[in-house]
Write a structure and sequence with these properties.
The chain is mainly α. The protein has one domain. It is built from ten helices and no strands. α2 packs antiparallel against α3 and α7 packs antiparallel against α8. The radius of gyration is 18 Å and the shape is globular. The mean pLDDT is about 80.
């Protein structure tokens, strides 16, 4: 128990650092870390992960808002559109075999990483400046119908994939915002954190409203570590270039993809 008490905040700090650096990884890594690394059952791991992601993402969002990086209107639109579709994705997930879901997850990860690696090998920067437009004077989105449709579409895909795969949506938001909007990587990370904060908070609130019990002692230790890691990650995020952040995100995606393939193979056996 003593080892678990020490390791729980340490694992939380690692998850928080990934969130702060890349805007993703919280939901993807928190549950595997709790189940595989710390031995928690899934029934306890899921609410602990949600609690830590919600608290850490709100802190990261507050930092990003002060720095002027987060696009709060876009985050609100994505969360409002994505939450109902998350329910639809979850409904479909219950109808699909677990191994199929893991392989779909891994395939999406490999495609995302492959595109980033191909751009780097070709010496090209990430494609930005898609249909959504920013006002050059203010740096804010110009809310035309096309911009709204683009942001809402990203929120819809993020919500559906979040419900389908049972993980956070940062791994979908980061590449799609980078590809279809003119936001810098720092703006993408900040906006992604805000969406995760909104979605995770809503999910935790619904769980509590339905009478689900949270393991508060373990949850608070893990959350405390996540907060420390998140703050450290955000400080490094300011110092690192967009290219380094994109490379870090790509490496994260590749690692998670191989882990999911491994799990799928074990499940098949």
């Amino acid at each position: 128990m003593a080892d678990a008490a020490l390791l729980t905040p340490l694992f939380g700090a690692l998850i928080g650092a990934v969130m702060g650096l890349t805007g993703a990884g919280g939901g993807i890594l928190a549950v595997p870390a709790l189940v595989v690394g710390l031995g928690f059952p899934m029934q306890q791991a899921a609410p602990i992960a949600l609690l830590s992601v919600a608290v850490a993402a709100w802190i990261g969002t507050a930092q990003a808002l002060r720095a002027g990086h987060a696009r709060y209107r876009a985050a609100q639109v994505m969360a409002l559109v994505g939450l109902p579709l998350a329910s639809l994705g979850a409904l479909l997930a219950h109808r699909l075999p677990q191994r199929a879901l893991m392989l779909v997850f891994a395939a999406i990860m490999f495609i995302t990483a492959g595109r980033a690696i191909a751009r780097r090998l070709a010496g090209r920067k990430a494609e930005v400046g898609g249909p959504a437009r920013l006002d050059p004077a203010t740096g804010r989105f110009v809310w035309t119908r096309l911009t709204f449709a683009t942001i809402a579409g990203i929120g819809a895909v993020t919500g559906f994939m979040t419900g389908l795969l049972g993980v956070g949506g940062g791994f979908v938001m980061v590449p799609t915002l980078r590809r279809f909007t003119p936001l810098t990587m720092h703006g993408v990370v900040a906006t992604s954190l805000m969406v995760q904060a909104l979605v995770a908070s809503g999910t935790v609130a619904l769980a509590l409203a339905h009478g689900q019990a949270l393991p508060w002692a373990q949850g608070l230790r893990f959350t405390a570590g996540t907060v420390v890691g998140l703050v450290a990650g955000r400080l490094l995020n300011r110092r690192w270039s967009a290219e380094r952040l994109e490379l870090a995100f790509t490496a994260l995606v590749v690692v998670v993809a191989f882990v999911m393939v491994g799990k799928a193979v074990v499940t098949a056996g």
